[in-house]
Write a structure and sequence with these properties.
The structure holds 2 protein chains of 2 kinds. By secondary structure, chain A is mainly alpha-helical. Chain A has 17 helices and 4 strands. In chain A, the strands form 2 sheets. In chain A, strands 1-2 form a two-stranded antiparallel sheet. In chain A, strands 3-4 form a two-stranded antiparallel sheet. In chain A, a hairpin with a 5-residue loop joins strand 1 and strand 2. The relative contact order of chain A is 0.13. Chain B has 2 domains: 156 residues, Rossmann fold, CATH 3.40.50.300; 61 residues, no CATH class. Chain B is built from 10 helices and 10 strands. The chains are: A mainly alpha, B alpha/beta. Chain B: Pfam families: ABC_tran. Chain B: Belongs to the ABC transporter superfamily. Chain B: This is ABC transporter ATP-binding protein. Chain B: GO terms for molecular function: ATP binding; ATP hydrolysis activity; branched-chain amino acid transmembrane transporter activity. Chain B: Keywords: Amino-acid transport, ATP-binding, Nucleotide-binding, Transport.
Amino acid sequence: MSLARTRRPVLGAALKDAGLAALVAAGLFLPMVGLRTDVGPTGALFLRTRWTDVLLLMAIVFAGRFLLRFWQEWRAERHGPSVQKRLAGPLSRSGRFVAPVLLLFALLLPAIPGIGRYELDLGILVLTYVMLGWGLNIVVGLAGLLDLGYVAFYAVGAYSYALLAQYFGLSFWICLPLAGLLAAFWGILLGFPVLRLRGDYLAIVTLGFGEIIRLVLLNWVSLTGGPNGISGIPRPSFFGLAFTAGGGPGSFADFFGLEPSPTHRVVFLYYLILALALLTNWVTLRLRRQPLGRAWEAMREDEIACRSLGINITTTKLTAFALGAMFGGFAGAFFATRQAFISPESFTFIESAIILAIVVLGGLGSQLGVAIAALVLIGGFEVFRDLQEWRMLVFGAAMVLIMIWKPRGLVGSRNPTVALGEKRTISAAMVAEGRG
Amino acid sequence: MSTPLLEIREVSTFYGAVEALKGVSISVAPGEIVTLIGANGAGKSTLLMTICGDPRARSGRVIFDGQDITERPTHHIMRGGIAQSPEGRRVFPRMSVHENLLLGAQSQGIDPAPGLEQAFTLFPRLEERQAQRAGTLSGGEQQMLAIARALMSRPRLLLLDEPSLGLAPLVSKQIFQAIRKLNAETGLTVLLVEQNANQALRLAHRGYVLVTGRITMSGTGRELLARPEVRDAYLGGH
């Protein structure tokens, strides 16, 4: 009896909510799906209506929304509102095992039987995004500065290496730090005008900055080749040993007495990006426990309180922008050397959006969460390749589901960077966190 | 009276075209508790913020310990012996109590150990809650944390902006007792901004009344409490 009484308002609310959602869907789908123009036999356009499709879509939205609401209410009723909190404990504890396992998996991946060229390429792609996610995590997750133009630094890094190699013949290993430095410099350049901006305003300016960089690359044809991009970017060497397909004297295969194989370079690139990503993670974790990292987090929490404590907001912001940009630059240089060809097309806004999605879905500030989110999003995107354009739908649905299930991101909890007494065990977990 | 630790001379502060402070002069001697009372929007918090250089005074001087700090950047002022517990407490909610306290000492680059010890002696509750996230503390505990965090930089002058805001009377009494104890034991100079004029004037050695950007009255706490204008305007007329 009592159950039925508590259920009824839930049912009513869920029905009402679902009805509203269906109405919104109707508003959207009536013009978009309901009306369609086709080319007639004479070449003239004629209007075709598809009302059944619209009704079907509305029904799907209604049912989906209803089930979601019902499930939410039912769960709240059954477990109480603290279910998220109760889940947080075991999840952060399991993080202690997840991170080392992921790291081990990442380290051993090329040696696992059955892992071929395709899987390694996918691994490289995922790790590139892990690194970009970790880099952006410094700016967005730790310092709390919403940056929608992160891809600009990725582009600066990539073009730095490509141009320095093309015009001055510098090698990858010299250009890697230079690319990072140049990107950091651009990070500071972006940082100055936005020092006083926060939240949405900052987001808009950074978005514009990202577009400016792309448009400059696109239009400065004499330097960058414009839309044609830059090709023939030299590949990295292994301490001076080249990865040439045919082997030959001075090549990697020749030096180690191996059968020449194109896989060597892929494996090398894989470990290179793994090392770069781990470097990003290591630096971030180290800084988090130092005054600078603590100042970043404090700035994210409350800028005014920071100022009242004598923290220099200018340098704190600029260092966050510079460091985040630097890792973006490293990743960009790696991208250029891996692809051997770059063009402005690779640095569009959607890239910034994906990287930001990785950081947000992973849980702002969480290293492990970012790694998992990159794996899920980028890996998942690749897995659903057969679905063609439908995979965007899968991608969107996955994001919506994660935000419903874990609104603070996959790893939403934060451990203190300084541990006291019995909390020391958690500190150890945090050290391991995100190493994967 | 000895030479003042803090002296504000004819300070005017603007928000855009709006003049929030109209030539305010006050002084605070070392070891004193001075309170600034006034209604909402009188400019009390603006005065505290002007001392910190944010916003900067458009005219007039702010002298701390014989040095003109009017033009100094905020983070220099806050590293030079002045600390503020800001209005609305503003603890870092997702960070632990311990991290909050460390941040108080951080910009000074000093050893946080003595500050932590002082904080925990003053507010034993904070020691129990060290590992807890500051956002999960009660309002009173957050206020204790905000004061303790400000004290971590070992200041000579503590600026307190409405420490009793939104607290139960009993809790705000505890906070005021802690301030009194701090002043009596360490000789810390305190400039206190309060709406709760009764408690503030009882605690303070001296007080100023601020009305729409101007000082209209000053005197010892006892004197001001006895003034009928003060009683009518700020003490609910009893």
